[in-house]
Design goal:
alpha/beta; single chain
């Protein structure tokens, strides 16, 4: 479902979550960095330019639609999907910028009791979406989360 095209209030919901990577495809298809196809012509996976996505702040909401934003440290569901997998490579530094931006958007656009930011996920290893320490980045995502929260707190 394209989270940008419907208003949750119409359906008597208090809000909706634009949870990455679900909000990357579709509207953000121009952020496609590379598409890999199989011999039979089927799309095997799409690799997205998340740096451009974050730099252009395509994920921000004006708050009128009660669309709560989410973030993903990285994502790769190619192990679970034979066709049309998505790969999003996010460095800890880029993750920190993205997190700060959506925290700021939440602060500006929502009342105090309705400021939420969703992180996908703590330990979704099978899809490459995890904050837990690993051999590549160690504790960098957790450290980026803590430092971004502190930086945000100090600026507010």
């Amino acid at each position: 479902m394209d989270y940008e095209l419907w208003n949750p209030l119409i359906y008597d919901f208090d809000g909706a979550i634009a949870q990455s990577p679900n909000d990357i495809d579709g509207k953000f298809a121009d952020k496609l960095l590379q598409s890999i196809t199989a011999i039979d012509g089927k799309t095997v996976c799409k690799i997205f330019d998340i740096e451009k996505y974050v730099r252009e702040k395509m994920y921000l909401s004006d708050g009128r639609d009660k669309l709560y934003r989410g973030i993903v440290p990285s994502f790769d569901n190619s192990a679970r999907r034979v066709d049309n997998a998505h790969i999003i490579n996010v460095t800890p530094k880029l993750y920190s910028k993205w997190l700060f931006d959506i925290m700021h958007s939440s602060m500006v656009n929502f009342d105090k009791g309705n400021r939420f930011v969703f992180i996908n996920a703590w330990n979704e290893w099978a899809e490459g979406a995890y904050l837990e320490p690993d051999r590549k980045y160690g504790f960098a995502y957790l450290q980026a989360t803590a430092e971004t929260l502190l930086k945000f707190k100090m600026q507010c």
